[in-house]
Each structure stands twice: as C-alpha cells, then as structure tokens.
Specification:
Bound molecules: 1,4-dihydronicotinamide adenine dinucleotide
Helix content: 40-55%
Shape: globular
Radius of gyration: 21 Å
Largest sheet: 10 strands, mixed
Structural class: alpha/beta
Length: 359
C-alpha cells in the first residue's frame, strides 16, 4: 500500500527544496505515490491562473500535501495565492515547531516552542478598501457616523475580524495538540487591551474554552508586545503559543530567528480532514542560486507530514538525521555555517545526500 500525497513544487527555491524532501522520504522507505501539481507565479505566467482548481481537487482528494513556497509579488494582478489556498481548503491551524539544533549558530541553545496560528481570519482575510475609491469613502462615512471618530482623508482600510467560531476551534486545536504531544502549558497572546472587540473577543473565548473544556491543561495569556519581549529574553517561559493570524505569522518568524533562521523552520497547516505541510520561509528571492538554499525546513516539514500520516518511526529517523548533519556542521548550507561566506558551504542537494547517508 502507498500513500497518495499531493506535491506542489511552488516558485523560487520551491522546486529544488521539495525535490530534496521527496528524495529523503523515498530514502526513508515510506511508499508514497506523488501527484505533482504546479501552482504559483510560474503557473500564472503560463496559464493565467496561479491556483488552478485541479490543485485544490488533488489536495482535497488526498487529504495531504507537501508544498513549496508560492510567490505573490506585491504588484501581482491576483490575490495572495497562499491565502487563497488556505481559504479554499479552510486550513485554519498553522503549526510551527521552533526548536534549537545543536551545532547551529543561534542566540539560544534550548528553545522548544510550538507556535499555533489561526489562519482564516484576523488581519489576513484580504478584505481591503483601496484609498480613493467610492466604497472606501462610503465606508469611512459610515464609520464616522457610527463612532464619531474621524478617519484621515486619503486612507486605505484593511478589515480585522475575529469570530467566536474561529477562536474556539483554534484554541481547541492548540489544547488538543498540547495534550497529544505531552506539552506543559498553552499561552494565548493578544492585544485585548487596545482592540477590545477583536482581540478582546479572542481572549475571552480562549479563556472560556480553556477553563470549560480543558481544565487539565495549564493556560495563561500574554499581551503580544510583552510576549515578544519575553520570547527574545527568556524563551524557556513558553511551550505552546496560540495566536490570532497576524501575530502568529510574526511570532513564528521571530521564533525561527531564535533557533537558527528560516532555513530550519518547518510548518504544517491543518483543516478538517486536510493538511498541507510547508516550510515557514517564502521563495527566497534574495538567494541568488536556489541550489544554495537550506533544504532542512522542507525536510522537517516532511517529518511533520510523516507523523500526520502515521509514520512516526520514519519521521523520527529523518529528524535525527537532519539533527546529526546539522550537529556535524560539515555538509550544511551557507546559512547555518558560522560565516555566511564560508567557502565550505554545500548545496541543497549535497546536504540532502548527507541526511540520506545518516538515515
Ligand atoms: P523569504 O522567506 O523568501 O525570505 C526571507 C529570508 O529568509 C531571506 O533572508 C531568505 O534568504 C531567507 N530564506 C528563505 N528561505 C531560505 C532557505 N531555504 N534557506 C536559507 N535561507 C532562507 O520571504 P520574502 O522574501 O518575504 O518573500 C518572498 C516571496 O515568498 C514573496 O513572494 C512571498 O509572497 C512568498 N512567501 C510565500 C510563503 C509560502 O508560500 N508559504 C511564505 C512567505 C513568503
């Protein structure tokens, strides 16, 4: 029997890095039948559609995908492709484990934080009103009439919406994650002191779900700015973090920075009956040669996929191999060498071969 899994190579460094992850899974002996589906900027340039329906149909049918990053340039004539993919599949929970690897130059040696991010609402719904349009002027007029507060002329507006339903399900997800993975506590972070009706609702709902449904899991909350400060100064205070969309996005990158950078940060996004595994990083436009990018984040995302499909032994083996290669520090890419210009840095493919050799 083999697992049917969708593979979206993506843009930029994506095709190189997903090929590396695929090679490692194959070498680990997990039988997978890949359905390769292209999407993103390259697909848009070829076909006029950055996210063809066949991609969504394949992920829905298989229930699992491994995905490279998709590029949405600021000037793109289409909405953010990742956002659309998450909305179409209702992938509401982003899971980003951030942990230190011995041998990797980083500020701390013992970080182990799981960032769980709500992904369907908050600041990233893409509901926006452009400066100068009739709709924006009408909206500004309505807001001024309702609230008595003035909005400056020539303003653009983005909507932030946080719902009881969206918060309940992400907090339940975080609580169940903490229980299933034997984690010690869950911290919800927010700015409820300023945004009473959005973040305030998030906090109130999170507290209720935590106390009424998961009384056995220690739960606390932190205002997001204090949370960021404490993460940078004393990351050991935190275990599982659950955050609204935008804070989760920022904090996941912050935690990646604490543990050695985006080249090592894996992720999974989950909906009901569907999950897409991908690195936290984007397409790496500043990495001149995609072959030089670090494949670890995608390989580690693939280990999350292995856990998800019920192959924990293979997942642990791959993770141990990545850790061993990083600890040895020889066959690693430029970003995890002590100096970025280190001439001994290897390519993504060479690092992948080293991971496979120590499986
Ligand atoms: P980026 O993640 O591509 O780059 C940010 C930093 O991380 C850069 O310094 C880059 O060199 C480094 N980095 C990225 N991947 C790396 C790797 N594999 N190894 C070593 N270092 C790595 O983020 P940026 O530049 O903001 O976004 C570029 C494009 O990616 C945009 O079009 C954006 O829309 C897209 N993007 C896609 C995501 C996804 O598909 N999940 C997530 C984030 C961005």
């Amino acid at each position: 029997m083999s697992y049917d899994i969708t593979l979206v190579p993506g843009d930029g460094t994506g095709p190189v890095l997903t090929a590396c992850a695929r090679r490692v899974l194959e070498a680990a002996g997990v039988p997978i039948s890949w359905d390769v589906q292209d999407a993103g900027q390259g697909t848009f340039e070829r076909t006029g559609d950055p996210l063809p329906e066949r991609v969504l149909a394949s992920i829905r049918a298989n229930g699992v995908a491994l995905k490279g990053p998709l590029s949405t340039p600021v000037e793109a004539p289409y909405p953010n492709v990742n956002l659309t993919l998450r909305q179409e599949l209702d992938l509401y929970a982003g899971v980003r484990p951030c942990r230190s690897f011995p041998g990797v130059p980083s500020a701390y040696e013992d970080v182990d934080v799981i960032v769980i991010r709500e992904m369907t609402e908050g600041m990233y719904t893409g509901i926006e009103f452009e400066e100068g349009t009739v709709a924006t002027k009408e909206l500004i007029g309505f807001i001024e009439e309702e609230t008595g507060r003035r909005i400056r002329d020539r303003s653009g507006i983005s909507i932030k919406d946080i719902s009881v339903h969206g918060t309940e399900r992400i907090v339940r997800f975080a609580m169940r994650y903490a229980i299933d993975h034997a984690r010690s506590k869950v911290t919800a972070s927010h700015k409820a002191n300023i945004m009473k009706f959005s973040d305030g609702l998030f906090l109130e709902t999170a507290r209720r779900v935590a106390s009424e449904e998961f009384g056995q899991v220690p739960f606390e909350d932190r205002i997001i700015d204090a949370c960021c400060m404490q993460l940078v100064s004393t990351p050991e205070r935190f275990d599982v973090l659950v955050l609204p969309n935008m804070y989760g996005d920022l904090v996941a990158d912050l935690c990646a920075g604490l543990t050695g950078g985006l080249g090592l940060a894996p992720g999974g996004t989950h909906g009901d009956g569907v999950a897409v595994f991908e690195a936290v990083h984007g397409t790496g436009p500043r990495i001149k040669d995609p072959d030089r990018a670090n494949p670890s984040a995608l390989i580690l995302s693939a280990t999350l996929l292995l856990h998800h499909i019920g192959e924990p032994e293979a997942a642990d083996r791959v993770e141990r191999s990545v850790a061993a290669v990083l600890a040895e520090g020889r066959s690693v890419t430029y970003d995890v060498k002590p100096s970025r210009n280190d001439p001994t840095a290897v390519t993504a493919a060479e690092m992948t071969e080293a991971v496979i050799a120590s499986l």
